[in-house]
Each structure stands twice: as structure tokens, then as C-alpha cells.
Amino acid sequence: MHENKVAAHFRADLARWRQLVAPAWLAALTAGVPVAAAPVAGWRLFEVGCGGGALFERAHIPGASYLDTGEFESGPLWNKVDDDVLLSLLLAHGVRHDTTVILYGRNNLAAARLAHLMLYAGVADVRLLDGGFALWQAGGHPCASGPRGRTPERPAAGFGIAFPAHPEYLIGTGQARALLTQPDGALVSIRSEAEFLGKVSGYSYIAARGDIPGARWGRAGVDGDVNSMSAYHLADGSMKPAAAIVAQWREQGITEDMRLGFYCGTGWRASMAFFYAWLMDWPRISVYDGGWLEWSGGCRAPSENHGNT
Fold first, then answer.
1. For residues 6 and 16, what is the distance between their CA atoms, to the nearest angstrom?
2. 81 with 62: CB under 8 angstroms?
3. pLDDT digits (tens, 9 = 90+) for 221-280
4. What is the Cα–Cα distance from 271 to 281, expressed in whole angstroms?
5. Where are the beta strands (DSSP E) in 131-214?
6. Which terminus of the chain faces fewer neighbouring Cβ atoms within 10 Å, N or C?
């Protein structure tokens, strides 16, 4: 515990405990009930998906607006869009560096992808709904329908600080290669065991099987499901205790004092691992955006709606 008192509905095992929110806390916030660790005025709530706009319109958390990862990634490698595009997108959705942003997804990996990009940009208060929309529904919390959120979106006039504020949170292939040569560095593969061992590529649009030579296996989920992060989650989809995640990393020689680059196929699972390490305040972490797709050069025909499959 990093403070004398961690508020109810929050995790005492996380240094950045405010940044992982429970459905009950978010339900109170969206209902206008006073909550502990309340966000600043002008906070924004977003559902993040990939081609999921129609599902959002049928049912979503009250007050949410919708963001699609297709706007923030560019094919065929599905890396982050250029910084000027990322900045324009954030401003268009009313997000500055000092805006509290709460994210969730039907596939919470999509929300983690955007959480990482917002931290890279410099948004100081990024929060993720633990367990995503599924855990919200499991708790019996209300849903709304329709295309709009709690307020009409007003573009922000400026980000407020230099952009991006945390370029160290994202690395390219050259930096990934260099990381492999550093005594205190490691690339961490957030992929299934079958992917890591080269039995499958894991993706319909990645031809190459295998993994980066010298990478350490950070685990992900069940074989055959690139949307699974069961090694990190309890049965209800919420984050495992931090100590359990640290222990499984330690088994693979992945420790807090190292300079780490998390990667997967195209960035979603890696972003979730990054976010959990960030919640634990690990100091030298990044996402290798290109992942196995860029490293291997193993791209088949580009997908227009790749999701994480």
C-alpha cells in the first residue's frame, strides 16, 4: 500500500490505485453520487471498440461516448497513427493533458490500447474500468442506448503541454533491437504459449510463426484466443492481484528494475500488460508498437477491421 488509506472500491495492492476503477464506483459517479477519488470537472467516459459502434448504440454505460481503435491505428501494421493525427483526435474528443479519461470496452484490450496511447500522449489521469463492460453488466448496473454520451463533445483548443509528453512509453523496431542488447533490458512477449513457441502465428493476417529471438515470455492467455489475457485476470475478467502478476513475470526473469518493452502481435495485449505494470509503478516500461507483425514482416492481406484477431 502506497498511501495511508486507499479509498473503498479501489485496490490497495496498486501504487496507482485510483487508475483502476470498480464498476460500483463508476456506477455511483455516473449517477451523480459523490465518490472517493473523484475525477476533476470535465471528466470523459469512453467505450473503446473496433467496429463496435452499433453495439454501443444499443447499450452502453450511461454518459459514455464511443471511440474506435480504427481511428488511432493505421494498417497494414496497425501501429499508432502519426503524432499529429493522434493529437487532433484527442482534441476533437475534448481531451487535454489535464482531462480525466475513464475507458472501458466490451473487449477491454481495446480500452487498454487507448489507455496506453493516452499515457504516451501525456494525459495525466487515465483510468480503466476493471473487467470492462462485461463486469459492469454482471453487476446489474444500468445501461443507456443511443449514439451520444453525457454531454455534446466540445473540441479542446489545445493539449496544454508538449506533445507527446511520454515518448519513452512507445518504442519502434530499432529501439526494440537495442533493448535486446542491454544487460538490464528485455523484450517481453505477451502472447500465448503456442504463439511464443512458434506453433501458430495467432492471427489470420500474420503469416510468420515464431517469436523474437531473446525475448522473454510474459504470458497472455489460452492458446488459440488472441483476445485472452487469462494469465492476468480472475474468472470474472478483473485484474489478478499484483503479486500474482509479479510472480509469474519473475519466473521468466522479468523484474521491476529492468528496462522492459512489452509486445504482442499488434499491440492490444501488450498494452494491457503495460497498463498493469504502470499501475504498479514499474519505472522503465514501454510498448513495442510494431510487435511480432512488424518484426517478422509476416503480413498477409491487410484487414480493414483487424480488432485483435
1. 10
2. no
3. 999 999 999 999 999 999 999 999 999 999 999 999 999 999 999 999 999 999 999 999
4. 15
5. 170-171, 185-189
6. N
Handedness of CA 104, 77, 197, 168 (dihedral sign): negative
pLDDT tens, residue by residue, 193-204: 999 999 998 988
Q: Tell me the C-alpha distance between 164 and 80, whole Å.
A: 12
**SS3 label, residue 44:** strand
Residues 71, 17: Cα–Cα separation, whole Å: 29
Q: Let me know: does 193 contact 291? Beta carbons within 8 Å.
A: no
Contact in structure between 112 and 272 (CB atoms under 8 Å): yes
> 3-state SS string over 224-282?
CCCCCCCCCECCCCCECCHHHHHHHHHCCCCCCCCEEEEECCCCHHHHHHHHHHHHCCC
pTM for the whole thing? 0.94
Q: Which residues are catalytic?
A: 264
Which residues have a Cβ under 8 Å from the Cβ of 60 and sit 6 or more positions away?
47, 66, 133, 143, 144, 145
Q: Can you say whether the dihedral through the CA atoms of 18, 226, 137, 113 is positive or negative?
A: positive
Please give the DSSP secondary-structure letter assigned to residue 107: S
Locate 121 and state its grid cell. Answer: 500522449
Prior bond of 34 cis (ω within 30°)? no
Residues 6+ apart with CB under 8 A from 73: 79, 80, 81, 113, 266, 267
Distance CA 217, CA 249 (A): 8
